[in-house]
Amino acid sequence: MKNLEKNFQSLTSKKEQLEKKLSFLNEKHKRELIECRLSYENSLQGLVTNEIRLDLEHTIHSLKQQVIYLQQRIAFLQDELDQYVRVYGHRPFHPTPNAN
Q1: Contacts 24+ apart (CB under 8 A), 70-73
Q2: Cα distance between residue 12 and residue 23, in whole Å
Q3: Residue-wise over 89-100: b if at least 16 C-beta within 10 A, else e?
Q4: How far apart are CA 5 and CA 45, in angstroms?
Q5: pTM for this entry
Q6: Which of 4, 43, 48, 72 fits 52 for a cystine, CB–CB 3.0-4.6 Å?
Q7: What is the pLDDT of residues 1-58, one digit of tens each?
Q8: Residue 100 reports pLDDT greater than 60
Q9: For residues 48 and 56, is the Cβ–Cβ distance under 8 A?
Q10: 98 has pLDDT over 90
Q11: DSSP per residue over the chain, as a string?
Q12: Contact between residue 74 and residue 81 where contact means Cβ atoms under 8 Å apart
């Protein structure tokens, strides 16, 4: 019984140490990301005008929105395909064009 308690205490201690290390690494990672972003912004500051930077940021935002829309569309179509397979027991047949 004492062995189990000692083992439990040892594992609890290791768990706490790992949680502290994980927390430290998370904070370190956040700092590194901030430093990287600041470095990136500083290096870009002299290279592009504010107008171009804003245009690029809008383009990136637009592309992200398109990706989200396409992911939702894929999920919707996948659901429809799954429903079709459940009802008919197979995937729809799509003949392949002749490669002549």
Answers
A1: none
A2: 16
A3: eeeeeeeeeeee
A4: 59
A5: 0.47
A6: 48
A7: 788 888 888 889 999 999 999 999 999 999 999 999 898 888 877 787 888 889 999 9
A8: no
A9: yes
A10: no
A11: -HHHHHHHHHHHHHHHHHHHHHHHHHHHHHHHHHHHHHHHHHHHHTTS-HHHHHHHHHHHHHHHHHHHHHHHHHHHHHHHHHHHHHHHSSPPP-PPPP--
A12: no
Q: Tokens 């500083």 appear where?
A: 42
- Structure tokens that stand for 27 in this block: 């904070």
Residue type, 96: T
Site of tokens 């107008």: 51
Both tokens assigned to 64: 């992200």
